[in-house]
Structures are given as structure tokens and as C-alpha cells.
Amino acid sequence: MAGKDELLKVMSQLVGKEEPQVSCQVDTGMIMKLPWAVDDPNPLWRDEKYARQTCWGGIIASPYFVEFLRFRGMSSYDKPSTPFSPPLPGSPANVVGGEEVEYFRPIRPGDVITISRRTTDVKKRRSKGLDRDVVIQTLEQVFTNQFGEVVATHKSTNIKT
Amino acid sequence: MESKQVCWEDVKVGQEIPTLVKHPTHIQMLMWGGAVDDYNPMHADNEIAERAGYKEPIVFGPLIFSFLEQMISSWMGPDGWLKKITVRHNAPAFANDDVVCKGKITDKYEKDGEHCVLLEIQADYSSGEKGTIGSAVVTLPTRAQAHPIPSGEPIASTGWLRRR
Fold it and tell me: Which domain does A10 fall in, by range?
């Protein structure tokens, strides 16, 4: 298996580069699918009649809808033909180590969200829990609606084991 | 879910918000992976999980994150807004763990006309306490700003996901 130094070298080439943007038109089905998976009965994400009477005036996406958008924006490693998908030495598994999300505006059915993504840092660390070297990638994603307004930002650390 | 609106005047520093207990199953992990298009085999394949250093497939960290967001949004009511949330996953959860989500108010303040509450949050697993820890900032309406609670019936939880 390739060493983590080699993985670090390959992934370091991504740091600071903006990946190609991806857009996604949001529909009610997409919004409703996540609360079903989470088993979240909150009617604000699923019941138009209820949501219309709230301050939002209709269904809005749950906060964790950003997780769905996050994967829409993943071009790296998932699409081998893109320049942002170098074959990773050792085919490491990926585990999310942490997340930080800021929410600025609600996401509604019909919104077109554009996702920007870049790697801001890559480093090698010793994982005590796994008793092995790992490479930690820090990612930033920005989600912008059709009016050019930032609706949310997402930062994550991804551990390549 | 309780259909009520929490107002800023009504919360106190040191107060705990209602605990949410979740039981992620293999089926829920499949549903989550399908819902977000995350087909990372770490969450389904024993051999790949073991090769990565885990005893078995682990629960998606973002699913645990979503449980914490469910807890917060259920508590704050429809007029509340989750502004920011930060979590760190210290340890993995495994399928059929009890995931106990907790939150405690550590500060409340007004800033730029908004009425904010700072929460300390954590998720404890059957396999270990404080598997996930973090913080969140929410804005709440004041009593004068709050809308009447909508009369619609909350949708029932899909109870079949829960462990019997």
C-alpha cells in the first residue's frame, strides 16, 4: 500500500484551487427526502400547509439539506475524468472528522444553488485512535442561490485513513 | 416533535434543551447514503471498514450531525433560525448504537438586532460518551415577534426505523 507521504504529495496539488462549480435546482422531493432518512418529523420541511402559516410562508429545507448539496459539489475523487480527481495512492477510505456550517438564508423549492468548493489545507498526522498515519484534508464549500446570495457555507475536515 | 415556539426571553443560561435519542440502523444508513448520494463503502462494507481501522462499518458523521440539528430545530420552533453549528467527531458510532443528543444553553445575547443563544451540544453513543461534541448559535424571536403556532398536525415519526 502506498505511503501517506505519497498521498500527501498528490493531495497537496489541490490546495487553493477552485474546483469547477456545480449547480442544482432544488425541488420539494429533494427537500423532503432527507427528513425521511433522518427520521425527523418536523413539518416545516415536509408539510406545505403547516409551513405556509409559519414566518417562512412555505416549506424550507432542513439545515442538514446542506449535506445533500455538499455531495452535489463533490467532483474530486468521485469522477475520475476531472482534473481534480487524481487517483489517490493507496485508495484511502474517507471519514468526516468535523464540520462547521453557517446558514444565512433559507433554501426553498425552485431555488438554483451553485456550489463552489476548494481544498484549503492538507496535512499528515498520526491518528492515535487508528494507530496509523492519516492525511487530513480541509475543505470549504460555498452555496449561492440564483440571486447571487450566499445561503450557507460549509467547512469540513476529511480524514483519509 | 413538540409544536411550540421558544422565545428568547424564556430561555436561561445553564438550561438544557430536550434530549433526542436516535438509533441509527443499517437501513437508516442506506437511506441516508441514498438521500445524499454518499456511497462511501466505509459505511456498508465490513472489509473496507476493517482495512481502515474500524471493527465494522461506521455511522456517517454527517448523519450524527443531522441528528444534532434535528434536536436543535425541534426545540427552537418554526420561528427560530440555526445560524451556525460546529462539531467534531471524536469517535465513530456503529449501527444500532443509541445516539443520545444533548444541548445546553451557555450564553444568550443581542447582536445586530438579533436575539442569539449559544448552545453546547454533544452526542453520546452506546460505544462511548461525547463521541461528537460541538456548539451552535441560534436566533430566537422575542415574545413580541413570535408568530402564532400553525395549527397543522406535525407529521408522525417514521417509527419503523426505530429499534424495537
Answer: 4-27+63-160
Selecting from B31, B60, B84 the residue whose C-beta is nearest the C-beta of A102 gives B84
DSSP codes, B100-159: EEEEEEEEEEEETTEEEEEEEEEEEETTEEEEEEEEEEEE---TTTPPPPP-SPPPPP-G
CATH of the domain at A147: 3.10.129.10
d(CA A60, CA B28): 23
Q: What is the pLDDT of residue B164?
A: 38
pTM over 0.80, yes/no: yes
Query: Which chain A residues in 62-81 lie under 8 Å from chain B, judged by CB atoms?
Result: 62-64, 67-68, 70-72
Q: Please give the ipTM for the structure prediction.
A: 0.90
User: Which CATH class, in words, describes the domain spanning B8-24+58-145?
Assistant: alpha beta
Domain-embedded: residue A50: no
Q: In the predicted model, what is the mean pLDDT of chain A? A: 88
Spatial contact of A115 and A69, defined as CB atoms under 8 Å apart: yes
User: Phi and psi dihedrals of B113, rounded to 5?
Assistant: 80, 0
Delimit the domains of chain B by residue range. Answer: 8-24+58-145
Which residues on chain A are in Cβ contact (under 8 Å) with B72? Answer: 63
